[in-house]
Design brief:
The chain is mostly helical. It is built from 12 helices and no strands.
């Protein structure tokens, strides 16, 4: 999940509405995970398709990377590109793991987290240190019991794949002609549809575990949206849409909140919905958002705030969700009983994200850029 802003690069204007849309999607992810705690399965969950926000982030990232760097390669080396991406992304990866370790230490629910009660502090700290590198941990080090490649901060799995996408772009894909890139995106889209329609659960949920099935899901979810975003930037001629932020935000909320399609009898229908949203609707949203203009200080401030907190919110919220999930399951609470705390969780996640941004992420990135760029 890459921010619209680039580090230590010339003052190239960015797309403020896309910043705001990323923040809208990040808030929806937090709400999705809260409702997930209270659902019995994926069929009855509120904000049912919130997991597709990850695919939206991948598409935005591809679009933004191409916009920021496609025309820079005559002046920038591959190594310099990788340094820029590390400086932009890695500080919050480290902070996400630290926040995850702090909350992990105080969690307690052997029902929710089967591996929790046997974990020593030294093992937790070792997992945290490995997490700083984004290297997936083996099953033997799964200290939570959820089979996550990053058990202290589950959403870091998508950053692992985003790093892979950046590596592929920096080494190879940036050199692709539009024709070759179109072929890659087409094949990736076919793979995405096949996976979604034939999925045992009728969806694209997954990608966070270090096993062949989950790795396939992760790579399939990455390839079309990220490289489709690059292709969209290269071939599209933007048009102006009045009130683009409002309409695009409404579209994001609607496609993520829509109830399950097809039920348990026709799982393939939900798979078709998932792939249709990623292949058709998300590119339209990004296209319209990129062409829109903000009018007025109020709208600009909202988009800037949402864009600023989007990445910190995404990468730091889940440790709080772990805690909330343990509390709900330990006390067997319904959503009606827990909703005041659920609202507090959302507010707390936003406050934590903003604090991490201002007190840590921005100063650290500024120092790193001065030192290494």
């Amino acid at each position: 999940m890459i921010s619209m802003q680039t580090t230590a690069i010339s003052a190239k204007p960015h797309y403020p509405i896309l910043d705001g849309l990323r923040g809208v999607a990040a808030v929806m992810v937090v709400a999705f995970h809260i409702f997930e705690t209270h659902s019995t399965n994926h069929l009855d969950q509120i904000i049912n398709h919130g997991y597709l926000a990850v695919d939206f982030f991948f598409l935005l990232s591809g679009f933004v990377v191409a916009y920021a760097y496609d025309d820079r390669w005559g002046k920038m080396s591959v190594g310099n590109f990788f340094k820029r991406r590390l400086i932009r992304l890695q500080p919050m990866v480290v902070m996400g793991m630290i926040v995850g370790a702090v909350f992990f230490y105080f969690q307690g629910s052997s029902v929710v987290f089967p591996g929790l009660m046997q974990v020593s502090v030294w093992k937790m700290l070792l997992v945290m240190l490995i997490g700083f590198t984004l290297i997936p941990i083996p099953v033997s080090m799964d200290i939570r019991g959820w089979a996550e490649m990053h058990p202290l901060d589950g959403p870091a799995w998508s950053l692992f794949f985003e790093y892979i996408a950046n590596i592929l772009y920096g080494l190879f894909v940036r050199k692709f002609s539009n024709k070759l890139l179109t072929m890659l995106v087409f094949v990736a889209g076919c793979a995405l549809i096949q996976l979604a329609v034939t999925s045992p659960n009728g969806d694209l949920i997954g990608g966070w575990s270090l096993d062949p099935v989950q790795l396939r899901i992760g790579f399939t979810r990455l390839m079309f949206p990220f490289f489709g975003g690059i292709l969209l930037l290269r071939v599209s001629k933007l048009i102006y849409l009045k009130h683009a932020f409002f309409w695009c935000s409404l579209m994001v909320v609607a496609v993520l909140a829509i109830p399950r399609i097809g039920g348990s009898e026709h799982l393939w229908m939900n798979g078709m919905y998932d792939s249709g949203v990623i292949i058709l609707i998300f590119p339209v949203i990004v296209f319209l958002g990129a062409g829109g203009k903000l009018k007025g200080k109020y709208s600009s401030r909202i988009c800037k705030f949402l864009g600023d907190i989007s990445y910190p919110l995404y990468i730091t919220h889940y440790p709080i969700i772990y805690m909330y999930t343990a509390w709900v399951k330990n006390h067997k609470l319904s959503l009606d009983q827990a909703y005041p705390v659920a609202l507090l969780v959302i507010v707390s996640c936003i406050i934590l994200a903003y604090a991490c941004l201002k007190l840590y992420d921005e100063p650290v990135r500024k120092w790193l850029a001065k030192r290494y760029l």
